[in-house]
Structures are given as C-alpha cells and as structure tokens.
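Quick one before lunch.
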Amino acid sequence: MTEDPYWAWLNENIRKGKHQSSDPQSKPPAHMQVSDYNSAFEQICRMRDEFLKSYPGDLSNPKGAKAMMWDIDGYVDPTNEPIGHNALTTPPIEVNPYELATLHYLLRSSIVLGADIGADGMQSFTKFSEACARQAHFMLATRQELPVPAWLRDFKDALKSAGVASSAAIDKIAVSTTLRSQIYAYSYPAQHRIEVSAVTREHLRTVNLVLCSMSSAILDPRTRPNALKAADNIADFLLPYVFSLYFPCVNYSSLPMPRARNGYVFSVAHRAAQVQAKFLLAHEYAHVLNHGDKKPGRGLELEADNFAYDLLFEYPEFGESDDSYLIYTSAKWLFLYLSLDRIVGAVLSDYDIDWVDLPIRDRDALLIPRASTVKGTMEQQALQQMGDVLLFKAKYTLKARGSEWIKAAARDFETRHCF
Ligand SMILES: [Zn+2]
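Model of the zinc ion complex:
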C-alpha cells in the first residue's frame, strides 16, 4: 500500500506522531500508561486464542481479501447500467469542486477493496472511480437532486411496520440529505423535518473498516505482531476522518481509503455503519414524533436515545435484530468515535477539553441494562473489545500528544485535504 499517496501521507503523519509523543513535555499521566493498552490487547488475544484453538474463525477467513466488494446500500446500484455513460453528454459546466469531490466519494464508496487486491482489480477500480467522477460531474452540471440513500428509504418503511407511530405521522416528516462533511442528523420538530448529511453512513463505514481490519489482524495469530505495531498508530489512522468533520471544504475524495481484510470484516463494518446511521436517524425521529415543542434538555436526549435503542434491539424490521451483539458493538464504537470527534472539536475551537465527556458516556451507559440480553460469539466479543481498546488508545494518544500537536496536525490536514 506504500505506493498510494494517501498512505504515504498517513505514514508521514505517523512518523511525526512518534517524534512528538517522545517529547517529555507531552508525557502521559502516570495512571495511564501505554503498557495498560498493551496488556489489554494481550488479554483479549489470549482469550480469543484459548476459545478458538482449533477453529480459525470468520475473522481470519481469507475469503474476499483479493476481491472488490459491493456495498449494496451504497449510491451505485451494481445491477444498473454502468455509471459514467451520462458524462458523454455532459455540458462543459464548471461545478463546485467541493461538491464534486464529496459526490465522487459517495459514489466510489459503493466498492470496497480487499486488502490483497491484485493489479487487475486495482485497474478495474480505477476505471470505476473515474466513471464515478464523470457521473458526479454530470449530476452537478445537470443539477440533479442528491438521491435518497437506500437506508433512509428503508428506515421509513421499517418505522411504519414497527407500529411505533401512525403512518400518517411518519409520512408527514420530510427527510432530506445534504453534502455537508459531518456525521450529522438534525431535526426541526416544528417543521416536521429531518436533515441528514449524505456522508454519515459512508464515513462511519470507513471508520468501522479501519477498526475491524486492524482488530481482526491483531486477533489472528499469523498477523498479530505487525498488526500490533500498526495499532500503536491507531490515532493517525483515524485522525484524517475526524479532521474531515471540522473543515467546510474537505476534498473527501482525497481521504485515505481503508481496505477490508476479508469479506467478513467488510460485512461487519458495513452492517455496523447501517446500525449507527439508523441510530442517529431514529434519535431525530423521536424528537419530531414525540417531543414537539417540549423544552430541549438532557432528559429528552436520553429519551430519544432509548427510542433508538428500542427500535434497533426489539424490532426485526430494522435489519439486524437477529444479531444483538452487532448492534451493541456498533453503538459502543459510535460513541467512542464521537468522543474523539468532540476532543478534536474542542481543541480546534479553543474550548477546554472534557476528557471524561459525561454527555457521551450517558449515551452509551443506556446500553448497560441491555447487556444481559445481548448474545454474541466469543469471536464477536473479541472483535468488539479490540475495537474498544483501539478507540481508547487513540484517545489516550491525543491526550499524550496534547492540543498543540492536534492543532498542527489539523493545519497539515487542511493543506493536504481541503479546497
Ligand atoms: Zn437529540
């Protein structure tokens, strides 16, 4: 992967990170040492190895490592005629480069590459990516509306069949997507309107891919030593995506594209992103359906979260109810990732950083009473725990490097990845 300029950028950042973290000024607090994370990694691996001695498990299955994988919930439908053909008739109109890059990112994200894809596969993907760019240009030049993603449409139907509100009330709510580079869902109860950023699901899937691929490589004894070295730099793998949420003109198309270690890893990352996007959307539906003109506050926020958890865990209409552990994992990772997001946000806005972040902790604390009903295999548990530890380690790294380092890295990101 080293020939890829995005990975080269990432590696460069990683080197800087190493340099900075050895700076005595940014020493971690005594109660929080790197060895804690190493022993957490070791412990999860030990448990996993013990229970799966004679069974290699899905996480290590090489199937898919050399493939291009379709994300069936993406913006490109593989059963349709090839995209990009419209571009032959595209008028030579200047379009907004930011919108072009974001739309290109969305279309191109419909394919995820396996980690060991060959030269032929790379060539096909490059062609696909070029066709996506032409299609994105065509859509902007002809002022086409952003298509409503499949997960948004399905969600509305699922909500109706769950019977938690009348079909009329649900139909009254308009959901629209925007090209803003944020993980973002917002409701306007008085106007019966919800707005979602189109990149939400794709962004979260990308983050899940980083976590799943790295976790599965650590859990696999054959790849563990190298994967543990990579895990030292987990913060650097995640930061480009976190930074992308804080700049208005991000060239999304230039962000690193993580690959899936295998088909199973892709499937977990994809399904977890579905759950996370649906969680954010369900939360907003709760505000519009149940909160009307009530005064906003912590109570209503937790009520909206509980509404979302209930839908996901208790109604098969929402897609993953047979896999309660996946829902559990998805929610945990979402909030741990959002806490990185809030740290970076505080640094860039010069606010005090809330390292404990109770508002976020409150939200995943709602999972605790449900934990006893959640069922998962040993392997699923190991994957979730490993992902948790990686996210905590990333948070720890940010703390150790300090605000000035984060600001410098953000400036560097801006030069490389913003219009
Ligand atoms: Zn809310």
